[in-house]
Amino acid sequence: MPGTVRPGGRTARTRAAVRDAVLTGLVEHGYPGLTVEYVAERSGVHKTTLYRRWGGVEGMLADALDLAGEDTWTPPDTGSLDGDLRALAQEILDTFTDPGTAAAPAAFIAAAFQSDRAAQALRGFYDERFRRCAPLVARAADRGEVPAGTDPGALARAVSAPLFLRLFITREPVDTAAADQAAAAALAAARAGVYAATPDTTDGRTA
After folding, report:
1. How far is CA 180 from the centre of its chain?
2. Are residues 31 and 89 in the same domain?
């Protein structure tokens, strides 16, 4: 989940300290082993404050994801949709395979299978990521690479889905070739208009 969180005052520092403690706890103990006591000790924030502000572990976990979504991440801008999608796929690959970054986002995803609140927060995080892909698609449409009205979220999901399948479902090895293949497949579908809105589309469904 790359990006830089914007700085703030004391409240922001407290949130960041709690977020870091939650991340560390998820990595070290998993969601079932994450406790308010652990977060309090790790973050230096009193348990009373944690309960008052977050209500418990689920609230802290959801807020940690909300805070991650407040970063400065922007999608690639390489000058072509092919380059952008390849860069996006590589970014996903790096995030979930680099030993320095992989543990925390993978732990968040695992927690989403065990907590409805975590799942809701994770959906919100990725909805925001997909929303930020709108300029990438708009530039591609302006260059004539994809039809106008191409759905940024659908395109971003198409790039990431094959990678997430390998990473979290089949547990197959994932490399740059797999990332490039996912990007190329999404590009071909986008050029064919698969992700473009049609006159028959109503309430997000195609007749």
Report:
1. 19
2. no
